[in-house]
Write a structure and sequence with these properties.
Blueprint lengths: L1 E5 L20 E2 L2 E2 H11 L4 E6 L4 H8 L8 E6 L7 H6 L2 H4 L4 E5 L2 E3 L4 H9 L4 E7 L7 E5 L5 E6 L8 E9 L3 H5 L12 H11 L2 E5 L4 E3 L3 H14 L10 E2 L4 E3 L2 E3 L4 E2 L4 E3 L2 E3 L4 E3 L2 E2 L3 E3 L4 E3 L2 E3 L2 E2 L4 E2 L4 E3 L2 E2 L4 E2 L24
Parallel strand pairs: 1-4, 1-6, 4-5, 8-12, 14-17, 15-18, 16-19, 17-20, 18-21, 19-22, 20-23, 21-24, 22-25, 23-26, 24-27, 25-28, 26-29
Antiparallel strand pairs: 2-3, 6-11, 7-13, 8-11, 9-10
GO molecular function, one term: transferase activity
Keywords: Transferase
Protein name: Glucose-1-phosphate thymidylyltransferase
Amino acid sequence: MKALIAAGGRATRLRPITWTINKHLIPLAGRPMLAHVIEKIVEAGITDIYVNVNPGEGESMRAALGDGSAFGAKLTYLEQQGGAKGVAHVVANAEAQLKGERFLFFLGDNIILGSIKRFVERFEAEKLDCMLAFSRVKDPQRFGVPEFDAAGKLVRVVEKPANPPSPFAVTGIYLYDTRFFDAFRTIAPSARGEYEISDVNSWYVGNGTVGFEEITGWWKDTGTPDALLEGNALVMDDLPRAAFTSEGTVSLEAQVQGLVKIGKGSVIGEGALIRGPVVIGEDCRLENCYVGPYTSIGDRTTIRHAEVEHSIIFPGVALTAQKRIVNSIVGANATVADVRDSVPRTGHQMIVGENSVLEI
């Protein structure tokens, strides 16, 4: 089998972070989001992987993820043609690569706790035409939603319904047989002007054998800041204990508790309290500070005097404010300083990008 990962889009709900970085490269547990997705696919036995990216982003994706050899896979980057016309159109963009193939389609901003191997194995063992994964959610109107009849039989999939027919969302993990492109040619753009993957799924319900399973573990669509932070926590929970290694230097006057990964060249200095799970990148310096659970800290970050918990800190950040920072995302090379360090002390000095959120 082959696989296609959707890694385009503009991620407007995550701005200003996504003004300068593709959403799928945002670090979760210290690594690009897409790296975790690729590992899930390879673990399921699929190593020939195509990555759909925005026009002009092929090289930046390749620079971040390479050719796939680090994952034991082959990665081929496909730039989206014809504009953003919906999820189904992403697959249509790869017709030359996938026509005649049975394949896995994975939305790259979906985080799942556990393996997808059982989905792939069932799809192959039962020779299904389509395989879908469902998850019970509190806001199904944001997703494609399966509709069942009185006997529990799947009858169709509805995209973002105002009145959801079930409490389930179709997650971004799909398996299709060789007829996907035939199905695609039968659908028309929706009222949103997009080719909806739900319409393709409904076609399969009426023209083939569709299997489905509920994801009983955690699944997260990382489309909002809160969901992104939760995805970061899920990835940390999914890491093996062996991943939490210390390759840095820890002062005798520091405390490191629980599962903590410390990168090469990083120094945990006097007065630092690190309480895991925490992932700290390379060449960081932390002293007289507190870093609490579910915090991911990028390379070359300095933290002094601050307290930070349940947050994603990008590389090159300086946190020196004597404040408690929680549930936050701090972009690359940002500075969060104490007002007492500025002169004159007449107020709060800020450079705030579009769509930023500040609490002061």
